[in-house]
Amino acid sequence: MSDRDVHPDAPNAGENPALPAGDRTEVAAARLRLLSEARRRIAIYQPALSDEVYGSTLELAELRRLATSGRGAEIRLIVHTPEDALRDNHRLVALAQRLSSVVLVRTPLEEVDLAYASSYLLTDQGGYLFQPDARRADGRASLADRAGQAPLMQHFNEVWERSARASVWLPLDL
What we know:
The chain has helices at residues 3-6, 24-37, 57-67, 82-87, 91-98, 111-114, 146-162, and strands spanning 18-19, 41-45, 74-78, 103-107, 119-123, 128-131, 140-142, 164-165. The chain is of the alpha+beta class.
């Protein structure tokens, strides 16, 4: 057994450190680890938001840390049904409303994008968590694999450009 096996937090010299993401617990741990490793920017493609996805106290603390990290901070989120998350009082909605200039939310308009069933999280450190079916708790993840992240980032940017701002999440100034 190597030191890296004993110490999972040890730095990885030039490797693409994979994270386990085979079940619900591993996916949640990978998501939290990626959020904690991000410095200023993340991109999230999540067709539907449930309480178990980006809703835990620890995940929200990391999202808040990112959003308030200073100049250049940006959280971009694509969600198919933002009104469902609003209706269900997802905790991420409140963060997005308080920090609407940093937490940017869009919803796809085109059928091809609305039919996309995968989800992913991309970090500015080259990390990613990809779930081929967002409803299932399995996927693949890496702390730093820009080559593996590149096609997901390209997809995200393309859908982002074709999407509309999720105005339902905007705070009301009454």
